[in-house]
Inverse folding.
């Protein structure tokens, strides 16, 4: 009987630690992805990155076969702090991406996605609930190349610009039809207590975890200030 109780206690303690480690690994992978992408020759245009309020990084999104196809990914969202998103990059919130038609473009490969949130409305909406890209929030494939301009019709109209990296190729990709939402169960696992995305990003109730060091350092290095009006 005593052995059973001890085993139950060990299991009770081990499960939250395993869940936390899983989310820490996701945050660390997001840092590696953004580091690699921001250090390739033709990456996200500087003028675009400098006007982004938030960045969502979804490492290794996988295609699955249900009906005509779909995709499923988990990752992180970090925003510039403050009510107007003009402060330093802050603690990440865990996010979930679920979608349909764009899965057919992935060719069965694990694909890294980076989404730039270009408006306060898009950031506020995603922090509050699930949104449909291209429906609730306007979205478009992001321009590529450091000399590309943020003043094109596409980038001026879109509230979210999206990019993909698969098989070493980096390009803008449309994620219209997919949904993006806060993953508050993952936030609880990462931070060890129940927190929603708004509390983490807007209210600054927790400090960034050590696993976010590379993610925040790279974004701070490449885009320390929000240059949007």
């Amino acid at each position: 009987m005593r052995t059973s109780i001890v085993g139950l206690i060990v299991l009770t303690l081990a499960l939250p630690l395993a869940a936390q480690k899983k989310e820490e690994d996701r945050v660390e992978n997001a840092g590696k992805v953004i580091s690699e992408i921001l250090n390739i020759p033709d990456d996200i245009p500087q003028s675009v990155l400098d006007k982004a309020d938030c960045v969502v990084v979804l490492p290794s999104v996988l295609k699955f076969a249900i009906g005509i196809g779909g995709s499923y990914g988990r990752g992180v969202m970090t925003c510039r702090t403050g009510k107007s998103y003009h402060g330093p990059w802050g603690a990440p919130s865990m996010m979930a991406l679920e979608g349909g038609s764009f899965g057919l473009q992935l060719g069965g490969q694990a694909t890294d996605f980076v989404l730039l949130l270009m408006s306060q409305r898009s950031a506020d909406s995603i922090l509050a609930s699930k949104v449909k890209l291209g429906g609730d929030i306007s979205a478009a494939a992001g321009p590529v190349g450091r000399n590309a301009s943020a003043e094109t019709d596409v980038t001026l109209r879109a509230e979210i610009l999206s990019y993909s990296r698969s098989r070493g190729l980096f390009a803008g990709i449309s994620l219209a039809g997919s949904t993006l939402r806060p993953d508050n169960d993952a936030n609880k696992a990462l931070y060890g207590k129940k927190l929603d995305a708004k509390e983490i990003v807007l209210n600054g109730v927790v400090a960034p975890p050590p696993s976010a060091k590379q993610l925040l350092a790279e974004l701070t290095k490449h885009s320390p200030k929000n240059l949007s009006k």
